[in-house]
Amino acid sequence: MGKSLQIMTVIPGRLHGFRLARAVKCIRIGHAASSIVMVCLKGAQGWLSAFRAVLRRRDRGHRRAGAVMLLLAAVLAPDSVGAACAPSALTVAVDIGHGPASPGATSARGRSEHAFNQELAARVRDHLVSRGVAARLVLTEAGGAPDLWDRPRLARAMGANLLLSIHHDSVQPQYLERGDLEGRPARFSRHAQGHSLFVSSKNPASDASLAAARAIGRALADWGLAPSLHHAEPIPGENRPLLDKALGIHDFADLIVLKTAAMPAVLVEAGVIVHPEEETRLRDPFHQDMLAEAIARGVLEACPVLTGQP
Q1: End-to-end CA distance of the chain
Q2: Is 81 a member of any domain?
Q3: For residues 103 and 114, is the Cβ–Cβ distance under 8 A?
Q4: Contact residues for 162 (Cβ-Cβ < 8 A; gap 6+)
């Protein structure tokens, strides 16, 4: 990369695919024909964000620089949680959506949703642990995927303040098309992209669930990530009530893992894996770390409501 260093202001809009709701101060570190890496200070909150755009090639040098920027953002950005709410008071059960026997959706390039869920759930767990949160994956004693009904029970046995279920998304069958993708037959859709958040109005701690989902949604928005609203479409299989349109939060009242949890519970659909370009992003370790960082920050922001601390 080049050695340029420039302080600049980016106005509201889009920066290399990231949506900015307000003007931000940025330091551009390095520039090349194929890549720009920036660290951005977002308003009075003092949040740092790392932005990287790769227009054509994705060589190791640019990828490494992007990872460094994300690390700086994670280390230097102060958490918005108050000092009175200690991260050590939080126990988070991180559920890996689906399992080998029922792997969920299939991506545009034929990869199982469960494989995506495993990668992101582990990163979310690691980001939480690095901040002092007691975060554990929800697994059987043998280290496998539990039965759907057992997941809330295992979370309760952990003493979890929050059950966080990690998933990746698809669309309804009528939106899927068959075609050629990178020289291979594929089934994909560009109907929807972006993350979605779900809570259950039948969860005994539904208010706290919604508060946690809003905190996670705000953290994702602070990274410039826009939600998808396709689950609110008035069509069979969707039509989920929107609880917060701006943050992409839906009510999935009868979803077992949310409804039967004894503690606040949030399900994160991290992105739409049948969308070819979004699938590429969701497989990128840089993007996975950005998602995990945002989710972890949202959980920490919700610490007071999850623990009952001021």
Answers
A1: 46
A2: no
A3: yes
A4: 90, 91, 92, 93, 212, 263, 264, 265, 266, 299, 302, 306
State how far the Cα of 59 lies from the Cα of 61, in Å rounded to an integer: 6
Q: How far apart are CA 265 and CA 48, in angstroms?
A: 28
Quickly tell me which residue has 């050629």 as its tokens: 180
| CA proximity to 169, closest of 117, 96, 221 | 117
Q: What is the pLDDT of residues 137-187, one digit of tens each?
A: 999 888 899 999 999 999 999 999 999 999 999 999 999 999 999 889 999
- 68-87 pLDDT, tens digit each: 555 455 444 545 554 568 99
Residues 56 and 22 in one domain: yes
Q: Which domain holds residue 98?
A: 87-307
Same structural domain for residues 63 and 131? no
Q: How far apart are CA 125 and CA 102, in angstroms?
A: 22
294-304 burial, b if ≥16 CB within 10 A, otherwise e?
bbbbbbbbbbb
Q: pTM value?
A: 0.79
Tokens of 78: 């102060």
Same domain for 138 and 285: yes
